[in-house]
């Protein structure tokens, strides 16, 4: 698939077909992740792979609680002093799917990076985390090139440490995201996207 076709085809999926995925495709996707740029040259990240219902149930009990405890109807229809935004519509659609979009994916990839601390005064203090997002984007694009699609969940607050403990992740590693990979269900509703006008984003020489 041509590069820009892949970029334009990639989208977040929250509804998968019940269809097996060849593990060789997953390996090609992760090899693409391993070609990402890296802050320290060493590419010392790791991947946990979840395949069975038991593994996913164990890892995603918090996501399940969050998804099942969310009242989407109430959220989407609550009175607002302004019309509901595209971002709010997406939130109302996505939260109830935070568990099933991982549980129903044939593979869930959990990338892991090492970092002493996550907070910092400078942008460069986030380099270990940012590097993993380069890896994650390569994974998304490679999945699209394979005809596959990804869901993603960023662990919320304590969910991070709960999943880490359940999966026996060593203390020095952190989890940037959970990534479900599978065949997208073509019946999944497509919410309106927001694409900026590039000309409005450009500042030549300095901000103006
Ligand atoms: C940093 C980041 C965090 C995100 N967190 C979540 C998440 O926790 N759950 C989820 O369903 N989608 C999550 N998303 C996906 C966004 O909702 C999605 O990328 C956005 O709506 C644009 O849609 P698209 O990916 O289909 O182009 C996240 C995306 C990014 C880049």
CATH fold naming = NADH Oxidase
Pattern of helices and strands: HHEHHHHHEHEHEEH
Question: What is the residue-mean pLDDT, rounded to a whole number?
Answer: 96
How many helical elements?
Answer: 10
User: What is the CATH architecture assignment?
Assistant: 3-Layer(aba) Sandwich
What is the CATH superfamily label? NADH Oxidase
How far apart the termini lie comes to 38 Å
Q: Which molecules are bound in this entry?
A: flavin mononucleotide
Rg, nearest Å? 18 Å
- As residue ranges, the low-confidence spans are none
Q: Tell me the count of domains.
A: 1
What is the level 1 CATH name? Answer: Alpha Beta
Largest sheet: 5 strands, antiparallel
Structural class: alpha+beta
Question: Would you spell out the secondary-structure blueprint of this structure?
Answer:
Elements: H1 3-9, H2 23-33, E1 46-50, H3 53-59, H4 61-68, H5 72-77, H6 86-94, H7 100-103, E2 107-114, H8 127-145, E3 149-153, H9 159-166, E4 173-174, E5 178-182, H10 198-201
Antiparallel strand pairs: 1-2, 2-4, 2-5, 3-5
Flavin mononucleotide binds next to helix 6 and strand 3.
């Amino acid at each position: 698939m041509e590069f820009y076709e892949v970029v334009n085809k990639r989208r977040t999926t929250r509804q998968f077909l019940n269809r097996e995925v060849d593990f060789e495709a997953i390996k090609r996707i992760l090899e693409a992740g391993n070609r990402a740029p890296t802050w320290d040259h060493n590419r010392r990240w790791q991947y946990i792979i979840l395949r069975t219902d038991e593994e996913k149930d164990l890892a995603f009990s918090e996501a399940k609680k969050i998804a099942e405890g969310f009242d989407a109807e109430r959220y989407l229809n609550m009175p607002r002093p302004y019309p509901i935004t595209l971002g709010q519509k997406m939130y109302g659609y996505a939260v109830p799917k935070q568990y099933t979009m991982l549980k129903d994916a044939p593979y869930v990839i959990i990338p892991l990076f090492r970092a002493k601390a996550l907070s910092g005064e400078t942008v460069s203090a986030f380099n270990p985390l940012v590097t993993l997002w380069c890896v994650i984007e390569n994974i998304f694009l490679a999945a699209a090139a394979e005809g596959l699609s990804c869901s993603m969940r960023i662990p919320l607050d304590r969910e991070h440490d709960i999943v880490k403990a359940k999966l026996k992740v060593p203390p020095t590693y952190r989890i940037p995201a959970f990534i479900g990979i599978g065949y997208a269900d073509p019946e999944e509703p497509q919410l309106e996207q927001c694409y900026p006008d590039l000309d409005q984003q450009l500042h030549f020489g300095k901000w103006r």
